[in-house]
């Protein structure tokens, strides 16, 4: 899951909005709330990048998951 409506509990499956890496939420996972959604990161570096330009990373993830046209 890329974005959660509430802060996810440990054990939830998440996708880092910066790296695109799938990971399991743990007690040490870093989070950001942006426009009412909660995002879980694979590391603090990705959290910093996202907070610097959320629109960039959200548009990248949307493009990566969009169905192919054809």
Task: Explain briefly what this protein structure is.
The chain has 70 residues and is an alpha+beta fold.
Count of individual beta strands: 4
Q: Count of DSSP helices?
A: 2
* Stretches with pLDDT under 50, minimum 5 residues: none
Mean model confidence by pLDDT: 91
- Specify the helix fraction band: 25-40%
What is the end-to-end distance? 26 Å
User: What order do the strands of the largest sheet run in, or round the barrel if closed?
Assistant: 1-2
N-to-C order of helices and strands: EEEEHH
Q: Estimate the strand proportion.
A: 15-25%
Inertia-based shape:
globular
Structural class: alpha+beta
Descriptive notes:
There is one protein chain. The chain has 70 residues and is an alpha+beta fold. The protein is 30% helix and 23% strand. The strands form two sheets. Strands 1-2 form a two-stranded antiparallel sheet. A two-stranded antiparallel sheet has the order 3-4. Helix 1 packs across helix 2. The longest helix has 12 residues. The model has no long low-confidence stretch (mean pLDDT 91).
Give me some keywords for this one.
about 70 residues; alpha+beta; two-stranded antiparallel ribbon; 2 helices
What's the arrangement of secondary structure elements?
Elements (H helix, E strand, L loop, with lengths): L12 E3 L6 E3 L5 E5 L2 E5 L2 H9 L1 H12 L5
Antiparallel strand pairs: 1-2, 3-4
Helix pairs in contact: 1-2
């Amino acid at each position: 899951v890329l974005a959660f409506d509430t802060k996810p509990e440990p054990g939830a499956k998440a996708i880092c909005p910066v790296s695109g890496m799938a990971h399991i939420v743990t007690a040490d996972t870093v989070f950001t709330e942006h426009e009412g959604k909660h995002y879980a990161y694979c590391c603090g570096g990705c959290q910093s990048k996202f907070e610097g330009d959320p629109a960039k990373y959200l548009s990248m993830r949307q493009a990566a998951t969009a169905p192919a046209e054809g």
